[in-house]
């Protein structure tokens, strides 16, 4: 399965709202997986200076990631396929 990043601009976001969004993403990923669309929320990074989050998902397609975010009611500006690079693989 491929890895994708959802890029978001979330001005004024609070830690509590971020946590709520994470819970919704996790719940929707579980729901979609039960429906036969395997999606997994991997992790997110919040950049306070730019009010951006980068949220990483494992999914069969970018459409699956878009659907998860729509179901979870989490806005995004872009979704891109990414390639993971980790020190252990270099």
Describe this structure in words.
This protein has 2 helices and 4 strands, in the order E-H-E-E-H-E. It is α+β, with helices and mostly antiparallel strands and 90 residues long. The chain has a single domain, classed as 2-Layer Sandwich (Alpha-Beta Plaits). A 4-stranded antiparallel sheet has the order 2-3-1-4. The longest helix has 20 residues. The chain is globular and about 35 Å long. The model has no long low-confidence stretch (mean pLDDT 95).
Structural descriptors:
single chain; 90 residues; alpha+beta; Alpha-Beta Plaits; 4-stranded antiparallel sheet; 2 helices; 4 strands; 33% helix; 32% strand; globular
CATH class: Alpha Beta
Strand portion:
25-35%
Mean pLDDT: 95
Whole-number tally of structural domains? 1
Characterize the biggest β-sheet.
4 strands, antiparallel
Quote the CATH topology: Alpha-Beta Plaits
Helix content bin: 25-40%
> Kindly, what is the distance between the CA atoms of the first and last residues, rounded to a whole number of angstroms?
21 Å
| Multimer state | single chain
In the CATH hierarchy, the architecture is 2-Layer Sandwich
Shape field: globular
Helix-strand string: EHEEHE
Query: Considering the protein shown, what is the CATH homologous superfamily?
Result: ORF SCO4226, nickel-binding ferredoxin-like monomer
- Total strand count, please? 4
Structural class: alpha+beta
- Unreliable runs: none
Number of helical segments with 4 or more residues: 2
Widest sheet, order of strands:
2-3-1-4
Any idea what the radius of gyration is?
A: 13 Å
